[in-house]
Write a structure and sequence with these properties.
By secondary structure, the protein is an alpha/beta fold. 43% of the residues lie in helices and 14% in strands. The strands form four sheets. Strands 5-12-11-10-9-6-7-8 form an eight-stranded mixed beta sheet, sandwiched between helices. A four-stranded antiparallel beta sheet has the order 13-14-17-16. It has a three-stranded antiparallel beta sheet with strand order 1-3-2. Helix 7 crosses helix 14 and helix 11 runs parallel beside helix 12. The longest helix is centred in the C-terminal third of the chain and has 27 residues. It is globular, with a radius of gyration of 25 Å. The mean pLDDT is 92.
Length: 483
């Protein structure tokens, strides 16, 4: 669907419908709006442009008369020609056929809507898994960037595994959480998501089956499915993924690996117990099932530190460990890491060099300075304190406005509350109605298609005032839908 990022000039002597017509015509002439692209519905277009629907209709009718657009009842209006193609017998290129032929699946429509709406400053973001701008450590960041010129000799490409100084700092940091990893067994990546992309390209065959928790963050992505993998969900309980199903399904599904988020799981917030972690390692050793441990939320504990990572109790090189600065410091730095056996790290590093020639040198130096200066640990203490306040505000608001229409558990860390709605309603309609009221939600069905009565609420992003206001407004929307 075409996006409109322009408005006509109402003070101009040129009629509004002519301005709109010329705007659309220019987009078509320059090839930005290609043949086959759909024009937004008239009502949506009028709203985006800030004009009456009749004005939009007049503009579209002229473009249809000129042969640039075609309007069909039931299928909307789309671009059918460009101005050059009207003057020649050569048909214009059909870029849509190329777009649809790409091997990487598009985002789910709801995820696409979320990605667009997140940049509307008027929206209360109750689902965003990111630290609030209010928690951005400006003063510490200033200090970090002041120190960098004295450290950096050049901003050229780093070696395939990433900046050595950063990998040395990470090696020391990982030791504090029980993971022995030399710098040579660490690969720097552009966030944990890139690590998953590299693994799908470098370690797995097309058609492989991947176990994961159900629900899971992975279901909201198409990283593995686009590489020809099959996802198979395993049930969760209050201690994490249920072990018995791994044994039952391993041979039946011929699974290659298990993807898990053991600390403050996305989207449920569950913290896998220490006993369950040991059981998981034992059964995966027996079944020769590799593990991807996504531990990006580990440092966001609010009550007490979580149990040791799976990687810390892995004695047979079974676990690939993923970490990141995206949740704890800043997603914009785009710095994460993979820890694993050296042959695996070297394979992934080779693929990374072929795809982007290494993560940002500046970001790598900045993160290394954060770790070496001690600022990172100071920042984490402040973040935990603030997130604890936010969690309490959200829980208090839920108790006040949702006690009769939903159930939830109090998370021990991370960002998320997995809210189960008691009244039966359309999750799609709730998403749309909430958006109309200025509230952006993450519906449960993007993490599990059967989770149609769930919402992933986040207390990490919205301001303190907006958290309470958003929960109250959301309760009003739900009560209107069920009344």
């Amino acid at each position: 669907m075409i996006e409109v990022d322009w408005k006509p000039d109402k003070s101009s002597p040129i009629p509004l419908y002519i301005q709109i017509k010329e705007y659309i015509k220019e987009k078509i002439e320059t090839g930005e709006w290609t043949v086959g692209m759909k024009i937004p519905p008239q009502r949506t277009l009028a709203q985006s442009l800030g004009v009456n629907r009749s004005t939009v209709v007049a503009a579209l009718e002229e473009l249809i008369a000129e042969g640039l657009l075609e309007g069909k009842s039931g299928s909307g209006t789309k671009v059918i020609n460009n101005t050059w193609s009207l003057m020649t017998s050569t048909p214009p290129p059909d870029w849509n056929s190329y777009v649809q032929a790409g091997s990487h699946y598009p985002n789910l429509p709801t995820i696409q809507e979320i990605n667009k709406a997140e940049f509307d400053p008027a929206i209360i973001r109750l689902g965003t898994g990111e630290l609030s701008p209010d928690l951005f450590p400006r003063e510490m960041m200033k200090q970090v960037f002041k120190r960098l010129p004295d450290r950096i000799d050049s901003l050229g490409y780093e070696e395939p595994k990433g900046l050595l100084f950063l990998r040395e700092q990470l090696s020391g940091y990982l030791k504090t959480i029980g993971i022995e990893a030399s710098p040579s067994s660490i690969l720097i990546v552009s966030g944990a998501l890139q690590a998953l992309q590299l693994i799908s390209l470098g370690l797995l065959q097309r058609g492989a089956t991947i176990f994961l928790e159900k629900p899971s963050y992975l279901y909201s992505l198409h990283v593995f499915q686009s590489a020809g993998m099959r996802l198979f969900g395993l049930p969760l309980d209050e201690d994490g993924v249920q072990i018995k199903t791994i044994t039952e399904q391993k041979k039946r599904q011929n699974a290659s690996l298990l993807y898990t988020i053991p600390s403050f799981h996305n989207p449920t917030g569950i913290l896998m117990s220490e006993e369950r972690r040991r059981e998981l390692i034992d059964v995966c050793e027996q079944e020769r099932l590799l593990i991807i441990e996504d531990d990006v939320y580990r440092e966001l504990w609010l009550d007490s530190p979580p149990p040791p990572p799976l990687k810390a109790i892995d004695k047979n090189g079974l676990v690939l460990y993923l970490g990141s600065m995206s949740k704890t410091l800043s997603p914009g730095l785009r710095i994460g890491w993979v820890v694993g056996p050296k042959p695996v790290i070297e394979r992934l590093a080779d693929i990374k060099m072929q795809t982007d020639y290494g993560s940002s040198s500046l970001s790598q130096w900045a993160v290394a300075e954060w770790l070496s200066s001690g600022f990172y640990h100071q920042h984490l203490e402040e973040v935990r304190k603030e997130l604890k306040i936010r969690r309490e505000i959200m829980i208090d608001s839920l108790q006040r406005y949702f006690s009769d229409i939903a159930t939830w558990s109090v998370p021990k860390g991370g960002f998320y509350i997995w809210l189960r709605l008691l009244p039966s309603l359309s999750i799609k309609e709730l998403f749309e109605k909430a958006l109309e009221r200025g509230i952006l939600l993450n519906p449960g069905n993007v993490y599990d298609q059967h989770a149609t009565q769930y919402l992933r609420l986040s207390y990490s992003y919205a301001s303190l005032a907006d958290l309470e206001k958003g929960i109250f407004r959301l309760s009003e929307v739900i009560r209107q839908l069920i009344s």
